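Bit of a strange request maybe. I'm writing a small parser for structure token strings and I need a real example to test against, not something I typed by hand. Could someone generate the tokens for this chain?
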Amino acid sequence: MSASPSADRGVMLITGGGRGIGAATARLAAARGWAVAAVYRDRAADAERLVAEIAAAGGRAQAIRADVADEAAILRAFEAADRMGPLTALVNNAGVSGGTARVEAVTAEQLDRVLAVNVRAAFLCAREAIRRMSTRHGGRGGAIVNVGSGASQLGSPGVWVHYAASKAALDAMTIGLAKEVAAEGIRVNGV
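Reply from user aminoacidic:
Good idea to test on real output. This should exercise your parser:
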């Protein structure tokens, strides 16, 4: 049974929330009673259209521009979400492939960007969510969902081993984090 848009489920922050999987997650979350903080890097028009759609359906949402590869931008995004109410859910959805290339053709810059967005950003966003949601820190608990990829199991040879490696790191983080914060009212899952 779904909650009404007026139900107080708290705030769900979704990285990569302006389009695609993130936007679909935002629509469903709003329909089930969360206020949505849709974090996007580019395509402001898409993010604003999403916010307007959620508002028209009776929900509450805010588009927050932030490059999650930048820690200061992550902190600003969480501060903006804090103004919406208590954070109770984080969806680490932002991700980049780094382009298709065999390992010997991947540049350090490509690898740095993939790791910064797919691993470092998810880790830092989880850190900020835990600081707000953990019962250990006075929070009311919540959930963290990390969006992974089958590439982490397949390795993606000849296409994007660098991307697969980043998603394997996210899988390991999900397992460790789930065990670390379970007793603090936070559920951590990967999809």
